[in-house]
């Protein structure tokens, strides 16, 4: 296939690396940053690239868009007439329901947009942090809509399994956003709140173990992307935050009441759940 | 030195392994569980061991107690007359202020109790999960009191640096408990609340990335130990939980008000803090 990757950031760049390794496809890159294109060429992970990609897109069987949700919509608008008939487009966006509804209004009918979400990433941004290793063993989610062709969904499935993902699941955009608000966005909100609640009275770094390190790793967050993701999944995320707050309040109440029995019960429950994971 | 380790669980067992590797000391083990003693002997990490340790303790220059806070106090009471004159005792307890006050009332005056806290551990318990590797590069905290001899404090410092810890800090018990409530106990409370807030509508495991995995690792918690640690540091932990709740509410408010600017600001702040860590 001729594949164009739009946005050679940490995810797009990782796709280029992983796909390039298969040595089965002709890969092109599009990125607004000329330096990024040069780096990708130097790494040999794209055959060619440029900052505005209509030429590549016209020839591509598959276009992988690794941009922020709002930027994808702009990109689709600008390139409505540029896609090859029958091409597959796919994204890597962490929110789906509202985004898909908006995107479906723009997509030309001669292409098939398969909405996907690789559950892999790095806390840093940019091609310098791209790595095909992040995909190894990770989950991939597809949120099909009624215009998708089964053969194209299967094609994307096979491709992502080939580049290292271990599991592909199909779910509705609504389910996707609900569960992602819990498994991905809530942890990010927690990590940010945890590190921001540091009163910095002490030299924190000298007093931490793995637990604090683990819980704050993702606090180094891409602020532009994640504010879009949070606001684009507002209601689900608020619900997830509130369920979490209820649980934290149960722990707090048990401490206030010096209720060892309730505390032990909460800890046992969490232990069983983690073991099951 | 002749060293007796009391409690060959994950921390005591790791001490036995790490000390044994130095090949400089004669190491004995005490554990209520006969099977644990047999395992430790089979591993060759103790010279001998038994379920009640007064014989070893009488001869030991250093006694490392790897028990829960309440069990340490019982152990001290039972062995008040058994310690060698001039021996050093040390603990590995995660809370200090109240605990030290209680312990100082029991400790015989001919021994020097150096209170310590290795900031290393495993989420699982028991000798099967002991490993000298967990100490590598970790922080060690000492909370000296006015009866400690400087030479004994230095002796413990050198010893823990020798078995892999990278940094030893001395702080007051009050400071210790304050900062530990934030860097260690709060993350555990969060991890437990996070996994317990899973509504389990979906097969969660298929929808997680590294973030959820990282944030819930420590949810597999030793319920007996951690309920003691939480309740033994009640006021500090409640304060840390509340500061965290304030920060999480700031994120929540920004989402409710669709206030992208505030959200971005909170994310930038957390990124800078994490980078600094």
Automatic annotation (TrEMBL), chains A, B:
Q: Which domain of life is it from?
A: Bacteria
Pfam families in the record: PDH_C (PF20463), PDH_N (PF02153)
Q: Which residues form a coiled coil?
A: 234-261
GO molecular function terms attached to this record: NAD+ binding; prephenate dehydrogenase (NAD+) activity; prephenate dehydrogenase (NADP+) activity
Question: What InterPro entries is this protein classified in?
Answer: 6-PGluconate_DH-like_C_sf, NAD(P)-bd_dom_sf, PDH_C, PDH_N, Preph/Arog_dehydrog, Prephen_DH
Residue stretches making up the Prephenate/arogenate dehydrogenase domain? 1-277
Keywords assigned by UniProt? Coiled coil, Oxidoreductase
PROSITE patterns in alphabetical order: PDH_ADH
Q: Give the family this protein belongs to, as stated in its UniProt record.
A: Belongs to the prephenate/arogenate dehydrogenase family.
Instruction: Write the protein's name.
Output: Prephenate dehydrogenase
């Amino acid at each position: 296939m001729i594949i164009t990757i739009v946005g050679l950031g940490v995810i797009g760049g990782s796709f280029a690396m992983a796909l390039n390794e298969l040595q089965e496809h002709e890969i092109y890159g599009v990125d607004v940053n000329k330096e990024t294109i040069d780096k990708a060429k130097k790494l040999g992970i794209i055959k060619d690239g440029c900052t505005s990609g209509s030429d590549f897109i016209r020839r591509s069987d598959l276009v992988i868009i690794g941009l922020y949700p709002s930027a994808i919509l702009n990109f689709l608008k600008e390139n409505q007439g540029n896609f090859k008939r029958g091409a597959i487009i796919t994204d890597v966006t962490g929110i789906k329901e509202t985004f898909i509804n908006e995107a479906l209004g723009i997509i030309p009918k001669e292409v098939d947009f398969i909405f996907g979400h690789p559950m892999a990433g790095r806390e840093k941004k940019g091609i310098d942090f791209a790595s095909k290793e992040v995909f190894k063993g990770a989950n991939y989610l597809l949120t099909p809509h009624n215009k998708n062709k089964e053969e194209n969904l299967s094609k994307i499935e096979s491709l992502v399994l080939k580049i290292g993902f271990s599991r592909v699941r199909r779910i509705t955009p609504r389910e996707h956003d609900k569960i992602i608000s819990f498994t991905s966005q809530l942890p990010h909100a927690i990590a940010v709140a945890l590190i921001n609640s540091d009163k910095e009275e002490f030299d924190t770094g000298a007093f931490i173990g793995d637990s604090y390190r683990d819980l704050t790793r993702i606090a180094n967050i891409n602020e532009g992307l994640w504010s879009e993701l949070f606001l684009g999944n507002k209601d689900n995320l608020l619900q997830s935050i509130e369920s979490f707050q209820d649980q934290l309040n149960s722990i707090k109440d048990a401490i206030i009441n010096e209720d060892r029995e309730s505390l032990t019960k909460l800890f046992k429950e969490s232990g069983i759940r983690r073991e099951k994971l």
